Amino acid sequence: MTQTMTYNGHAKAVLVLGLPLVGSNIAQMAIGMTDTVMMGWYGVPDLAAMVLASSMYFLFFIVGAGFAFAVMPLVANAASAGDDTQVRRVTRMGFWASTAYVIIMLPILWWAETWLVAVGQDPVVAGLAQDYLRIASFGLLPGLFIMVMQSYLSAQEHTTIVLWVTLVGAVLNGLLNYALIFGHWGAPELGIRGAAISSVLMLTLSVPILALYAARNLPQHALFQRIWRIDTQALGQVFRLGWPIGLTSLSETSLFTATALMMGWIGTLQLAAHGIALQWTAVAFMVHVGLANAATVRAGRAVGRDDSAGLRRGGIAVLAMAVIFSCAVVIVFITLPELMVGIFLDNAEPARDEIMIIGVSLLAMAALFHVADSTQVIALGLLRGVQDARIPLLLAVISYWLVGIPAGYLFGFTWGYGAVGIWMGLVCGLTLSAVLLNYRFWTRSWVK
């Protein structure tokens, strides 16, 4: 790539790299959506517990994934410099950092019911959520290993295998869910525990497939050679970049988790509607996450080449694509909300109409914040590519914890707007984040 690459050239390069990542992310979300749809068919309390448990699990997962996300720009930069040894070192220490994180966090997931009840959740829903989390926690380590492998492979521009493994995993998860949640094909009827078992099995089977692909197609890195040996220098690099990335993700995720908790304070139906609307916003958001990951790799390689013009042009190209797609999503959210919510609900469900009304109103709020959400994650991807993580963490804390969460509480409870008011907090937090992160990236020079 050269400094003279046109905007169209950058857009094509982003699409070649990003489309498999977009597909992989959507397939990953399809796994969560399948869980939510099937639990909605199984029962509303189970659906509410799934929403709560999956929100908690994702919070722990995304913080740990900070070390995996750190691998991506570090590998992209090393690959651009032709340093295969550094590629191996930082990837291996990504596995080490992820393992240490899981060991620390497992006890918190295991005793989830105690602290869920302590923060005001319905005891029945909290108990079902703990049933899910005690099983799902065993998928945390393979899930983070997959994230490290995805970051490594994406930085090498080997993204097609990531897509296919995720697609196969989504199909496998759906089949296992159908069998284990409802007790079909001779399997026991396990309800929410069946959904957790399906996820763990799917994640565990995906790890050796990605590892085998890496060993066979990128042998120059000898990725698993002496993997048991600690490399303190590389581990320090991964840790220093990974912890602020993880906490930045925590800041945004905690905004949505706090929203789920506040919905639980209102009632089970509101929490169920929140989960349905959130599934659709998350699916659309995964497109932007894929583009942001491509932006991280492209930015990392531009920095490795000392290509200031390429960094800026590539950033403009990926941001423009995100805005165009987000405008299309807004149109869908506004015109088809009843269809989108109804897919998740059994026609015989007594509370169907009430959940439908709440869900439709929440999708209208999602239309308000989706453009901001897309532009903030692209800016974050570009900042990660230039290995700028600590200031974005501060900006995220301001946007989500100091503005978004308090605004949701004020609108939802103090000023009486209920479920819609809580989602107004999302609008405030994500909009401020988009402004601050984009200002951070576009007003500075990142290439010396």
Sum up the structure in keywords.
0% strand; mainly alpha; 15 helices; 84% helix; 448 residues
How many beta-strand segments?
0
Largest sheet: none
Helix content: over 70%
Mean pLDDT: 87
Rg: 21 Å
Structural class by sheet pairing and helices? mainly alpha
**N-to-C order of helices and strands:** HHHHHHHHHHHHHHH
Query: How many domains?
Result: 1
Task: Describe the oligomeric state of these chains in a short phrase.
Answer: single chain
User: Which outline best applies?
Assistant: globular
Query: Which band does the percent of strand residues land in?
Result: under 5%
| Alpha-carbon distance between the two ends | 18 Å
What is shown here, in short?
By secondary structure, the protein is an all-alpha fold. Helices cover 84% and strands 0% of the residues.
Please, could you describe this protein's structure?
With 448 residues, this protein is mainly α. The protein has one domain (7-442). Helices cover 84% and strands 0% of the residues. The chain contains 15 helices and no strands. The protein has helices at 7-42, 44-80, 84-110, 112-118, 123-136, 140-155, 160-182, 192-217, 232-266, 268-304, 308-335, 337-342, 352-385, 390-414, 418-442. The radius of gyration is 21 Å and the shape is globular. The mean pLDDT is 87.
